[in-house]
Amino acid sequence: MKLLNSAALILLGLSVNAVAAEDLVKKASDAGLKPIPENHAELFKLIDNPNNPITREKLELGKKLYFDPRLSKSTLISCNTCHNLAMGGIDGISTAIGHKWEHNPHHLNSPTVYNSVFNIKQFWDGRSPDLEAQATGPIEAGPEMAMPAGLAVERISSIPEYVNNFRRIFPGQENPVTLENIGKMIGAFERMLVTPSRFDDFMHGDSSALNAKEKEGLTTFIDKGCTACHNGVGIGGGSMQAFPAVKPYKYASLGDFKGDAKGMVKVPLLRNVAETAPYFHNGAVWDLDEAVKIMGETQLGVTLTDQETNSIIAFLNSLTGKKPEVHYPLLPASTAKTPKPQAD
Question: Which of the residues are catalytic?
Answer without folding.
Answer: 144
